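It is worth pausing here to work through a concrete case rather than discussing structure prediction in the abstract. The textbook approach is simple: state the sequence, then state the predicted structure, then interpret. We follow exactly that order.
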Amino acid sequence: MATATFKVYDKPGNYWNTLTSISYAWFDAFPSSLSEDCTDSGTTSTDAVGEIALTLTGSSLTSGQQGWCMLTHASGYEAMLPITVD
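Step two, the predicted structure:
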């Protein structure tokens, strides 16, 4: 089972501290379209320093390999991020 821990911030570089109800979809490879099946999905939140920790039960990646995480939030935040598995 893989895990991924990373910080989320806006364009000016401010960390999104204590943000809740963030939807995520994890892809082991960059998706050719957003209709492609993800390996993991759900909702999460950031901690006091803007960090997210995901447990990726459906991922086949191992430590050091890179996957892609799509994040969306009702505030308008949306991103597709390359993330290295812990």
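Step three, interpretation. The radius of gyration is 12 Å. The chain has no helices and six strands.
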